[in-house]
Amino acid sequence: MFKKILIANRGEIACRVAATARRMAIKTVAVYADADTHAKHVMACDEAVYLGGSAAQDSYLQWQKIIDAALATGAQAIHPGYGFLSENEAFASACAKAGLVFIGPSAAAIKAMGLKAESKQLMAKAGVPLVPGYHGADQNPALLQREADRIGYPVLIKASAGGGGKGMRRVEQAADFAAALASCQREAINSFGDAAVLIEKYVQRPRHIEIQVFGDSQGNLVHLFERDCSVQRRHQKVLEEAPAPGLTEALRQQMGQAAIAAAKAVNYVGAGTVEFIVEQKGDDQPEAMVFYFMEMNTRLQVEHPVTEAITGLDLVEWQLRVASGEPLPLAQDQLQIHGHAMEARICAETPDHDFLPATGTLQVYRTPQSTAFERGVVRVDDGVCAGDVISPYYDSMLAKLIVHGANRAEALARLDAALAQTHIVGVNTNVAFLRQVVNSPSFAQARLDTALIKREKVNLFHQTPLSLPWTVAAAVAALLQAEQREVTADPFSQRDAWRVGGQTLRTFDFELAGQALKATLRGLSRTPPGTAQTLTIEAAPDAALLFEGALSWSVDALGRLDIGLAPERRACRVEVIGQAGRDAVRALFVFADVGSAQIKCIDPLLQAGQGTAEVGGRLTAPMPGKVLSIAVKVGDAVKKGQLVAIMEAMKMEHSLHAPADGVVAEVLYAAGDQVSDGVELLKLLAA
């Protein structure tokens, strides 16, 4: 077994590998970029080596620097994690030439499965079912258009060297093919340095089911059952679970054998995943399912913890043992499925705005009681801590939340409860969206396919599960409780609005989802904090009554508020960002069992002193990133919704559209420019 390994990655997966290595008494070496100087993965390892600038191409993709670091620190092997260099055949070859073990398959296997077109041809020879399509080397656009017409629409254009949902476009009709092809090739060049694509028939009502495989250097191969990864946005996975709901044992065995055949075709060693598209031809009848090979990922997958949960195994340990020359720890007949597991990917993004990636500082980062990087009823694998800055340079995933139960219903309930206990402030995340997905009829009833999010969009986006009265009540209670903590024996420290006559009157100015509100709390003077008082909520400025009722609250030992809004009670946690008397606007984040909400508390006097900024007709960058192209020039007339620019951030392209009709007055940035969140890209004059 190795005595020291270098982990050629960052974030959650680097911490994950380090955790298993530590348990096995293997020393670890981290590598890091400028943006990760104080990152969690650096602290998780025994040593750390600096690579370079924050951008991946200046650091985590600099494989010669990584090999030099391994040699300099005495590491015997390199674990690539996932992403970055994990499926780079040149890197795997360079490791071997340097006398280092690449903890993964051979360079030949990576090459064989790395190009989608070539891998499809190889699978055809191995007898693995394929989706009808074109996988040829001729990339003439006219030929590709003809092949798409022959296959029949809708078709899917996929970057041959792609992965992670990048370089992929669905095309509904022939007229849209050329533009989709150009966009797909541009993203493929930017992400993988290779514009080659393949074209496949778009399978209707598809499920994405993958099989975990493992091979050793003695020629043994096993599969560790399947994972359902059908819930996706932008062709990227959102929720994964194992085993796949509704899959018959016969189909499980067929898919498992097909996966092993695929791995045998390339003499596979190590952890790999064979991904299938499963077509549902009947009315959710398992016997009507037909599966097709999609691709093989020659690395550990993000979603490997659900397989660990149902098998009781540590897949990173298996990787290390196999890479050091040991045989597989178990044979196929020794592997069994135990219970049901689910994983939710927690990402820094804004689901209600087309999942735009988000950046910022993690001002609050709370997760449920859980294990980390090892099997448990609730498990959280992450690579971040409160106070970390989420940059635009890397993938948007912050953490993985994994739950295990005796059956799917139990796992589902645990996942929702764990998400409700995940509180993140400072960066927009998809946590509330994930709760909506988990509770949607389609997911709850296991009516799964890759269009689930689109089908359930009415139930998933722009939701307000925590009502206005509860949000305001929680905010008022939190503000008053914060005041109470500052009270001393000095009577002048009291801010309870005591008046002669025994009455108190407190008013609060709020803004909730763009609506101005005024809350008033009336009660008896000198009563204990939290005693029932009358809460009135009015719309501003017309003073229309929105709610009136009795509010009371108490605080438990963990700082959670138990709020009574007669006749109900609800437990909440409220995070307040900002300081009274200093900040004109304080943000309050309310987390409750039914959902969460954000509300602003306004100090009118402070706000009046600061003034307001006028925002005119302009287009601003919705996130930090790089400008790929500007589609208009000065003097052009544009219509609201017209494409005017394309940006790239967190490895994805984002189309920007005109906010209103107008004429382009000034273009402030050009293709290739790096821009910050909120900067003005171009100015529009009213048409």
CATH class type of the largest domain: Alpha Beta
Helical percentage: 25-40%
Strand content: 25-35%
Largest sheet: 8 strands, antiparallel
Query: What is the correct CATH architecture of the largest domain?
Result: 2-Layer Sandwich
The total count of helices amounts to 18
Taken together, the total number of domains comes to 5
Written overview of the protein:
This protein is α+β, with helices and mostly antiparallel strands. It has 18 helices and 39 strands. The strands form nine sheets. It has an eight-stranded antiparallel sheet. Helix 4 runs antiparallel to helix 5.
Could you outline the blueprint of secondary structure elements for this entry?
Elements: E1 4-7, H1 11-23, E2 27-33, H2 40-44, E3 47-52, H3 63-73, E4 77-79, H4 89-97, E5 101-102, H5 107-114, H6 116-126, E6 133-134, H7 141-151, E7 155-159, E8 168-171, H8 177-192, E9 197-201, E10 206-215, E11 221-233, E12 236-242, H9 249-264, E13 270-280, E14 289-297, H10 304-311, H11 315-323, E15 340-347, E16 349-350, E17 356-357, E18 360-361, E19 364-366, E20 378-382, E21 389-390, E22 397-405, H12 408-420, E23 423-425, H13 431-438, H14 441-444, H15 452-455, H16 457-460, H17 468-485, E24 503-512, E25 515-524, E26 533-539, E27 545-555, E28 561-565, E29 568-577, E30 585-592, E31 595-602, H18 604-610, E32 618-620, E33 625-630, E34 637-638, E35 643-649, E36 652-657, E37 662-667, E38 674-675, E39 680-686
Parallel strand pairs: 1-2, 1-4, 2-3, 4-5
Antiparallel strand pairs: 6-9, 7-8, 7-9, 10-11, 10-13, 11-12, 12-15, 13-14, 15-22, 16-17, 18-21, 19-23, 20-22, 24-25, 24-31, 25-26, 26-27, 27-28, 28-29, 29-30, 30-31, 32-39, 33-35, 33-38, 34-37, 35-36, 37-39
